[in-house]
Fold these 3 entries.
Entry 1:
Amino acid sequence: MRVYNMHEAKTQLSRLVREAALGEPFVIARAGRGVVKVMALDAPEAQQVKRFGFLAGQIQVPEDFNTRGADEIDPLFWDGE
């Protein structure tokens, strides 16, 4: 996320707001410390972002996933005992 100091934000406000409306949020900083985050009104809130399970039903894990390739891998780590 881009950070702009107060002076930069004031001089480029129209462009920055246009970009934020298109989904590019930014931070306005004062003395190098972030003060305000500017983002589109229809952007999802942090608690609305779905992270876990976003590929549910789209990926198939094979039944032999945990043992796949064991015949080739085991001899590399075990001395046969």
Note: Strands lie at 2-5, 26-30, 33-38.
Entry 2:
Amino acid sequence: MNNTHPGERLHLGCGGFAPPGWINTDGSWHVWLARWPLVKRLALAIGLLPAMHRDHPWPDSILRLDLRRRLPFPAERLSAVYSSHVLEHLHRAEALALLGEIRRCLRPGGVARMAVPDLAFHLEEYRQGRILPEAPGATPADTLMHRLYLRPPAPPGGSWPRRLYHAVLDFNSHKWLYDQESLCALFREAGFASPEACPLLTSRIPGIEHIERPERIGGGGTLIVEAEK
């Protein structure tokens, strides 16, 4: 994308949520299927796409990005980069490389803000013996595993194309979890000098309330770290 300008802001892993004023990106195949409705209908028909996604809207303005690759932006062109519950889906080495790419693309004074599941919070829940009714079991350990989501409780079901997709790509499960110390250390390793944990909706990014959704990351189980280049 060579038509960027210094004020552009990048939203990584947006899902179907594409707020205006951001370059909204996601790695899901839904981004591609949104541009090819006939292929989407075929994917639904053969069971590759779950029926729950039949009427799930994905704006066709979303840019498909594989975050394990180099970001397609020139150096020092972005003023802010935001992601919510994305970094934990990458292996630590991949997350480190991504933060390095983010730093390369940020202009001086630009801000990177990453929201991830808070490992310390969930371990404290386990220590206190909390049990969630939606967890696949009736013990604190089941609740912890449900929260960490390192793997789903059962192998992927459905048609063989869908099982193959999950076996090969494995995007949904978590690969690496962070507490405040380890995430700040990752930022520093990527070249950011002073990362710090931030409360929900408190940021150096103007208009953070338009992209950070309390219904998605509220409730105390999310860690947010922000750093300036």
Note: The radius of gyration is 18 Å.
Entry 3:
Amino acid sequence: MRIQVKAHARSRREAVNPQPDGSFKVEVKAPPSDGEANAAICKLLAEYFHKPKSAVRVVLGGTNSRKVIEVDD
């Protein structure tokens, strides 16, 4: 399954918020440098969907705040 994500790095909290349009807003404390925020987003989404971390990856938007994330079934 592919989902649209609006990422917010360096947030005060970590949260996954479903949006009315079917996308997700993901807030992480990690900085956006060296892929730290992407790794934190994948970890948080893996917990949210009850999947292993290896089942979640960034497909598009690695350096953008809007991302496409793939979650394996």
Note: The longest helix spans residues 36-49.
